[in-house]
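Recall that a protein's primary structure is simply its ordered list of amino acids. Everything else, from secondary elements to tertiary packing, is in principle encoded there. The following example makes that idea concrete.
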Amino acid sequence: MELVEVNSVWKSYPRRLGMRTEENAVVQDVSLSIDAGETLGLVGESGSGKTTVARMILGLVNPTRGTIRVDGVDVATASTEELKRLRRQMQPVFQDPYAALNPRMNVLEIVTEPLVIHEDDSGAALGNGSQQRRTALRVKCVELLREVGLDESALTRHPHEFSGGQRQRINIARALALRPNLLILDEPVSALDVSVGAQIVNLLRNLQREHALTYLFISHSMPLVRYLSTRIAVMERGRLVETGEAETLCAHPRQAYTRKLIAATPELPAGAA
């Protein structure tokens, strides 16, 4: 079953050229789908339009043309109630694990922030009394931290006290707080060294199996995408140039650009496989 449908999507921004303004298309006629429970790898060099596609799926920007549906709902025209439901169902994990965390908040506050924001929908589960609510949030945070390989000692600490890999684990815990169906993973390991990045990729793989998650995994690294993805979509200069099953596409790429991406990035270390 298709969870995400991207149909003939364009995204343009105005660009000033001397005395005139023209539209600069950063995404051009992209169509793709993501089935429930699978990982679609979206790969391409910087500036290829990958992140813009992700932001449109999340509803952070609207397409200039075309439609994007998540769980059957058109993201650009969804009602307030539909958007609230969609935002519980899909969560992002961004590239920079430090910039994504509020340095003034401790881990308990960071991880449970989505639960507090959406408390109208989940308040019954958190309890009615203030002490009961605080206890429920703490219990939930400990559960989420354990899922990503961190323990209770992290609760009162702040982001600067953690390594890059630990901070990304905190980001992932926060993304899981609302038990979403879809995670948008935008270069989640590119700011980490190779061995730490491999650990995070394996964590994501295990979490997907445990929670039947659907992933859009965005990266410039073809071997990384190949390892984690069911299918791969290749973007070049705003256009989708090739799609296919991960193993088949990597073994027999049809496009010269795809072959270039495969040749440009090293294989994962042995510990990642």
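DSSP finds ten helices and ten strands in the chain. The two ends are 28 Å apart (CA to CA).
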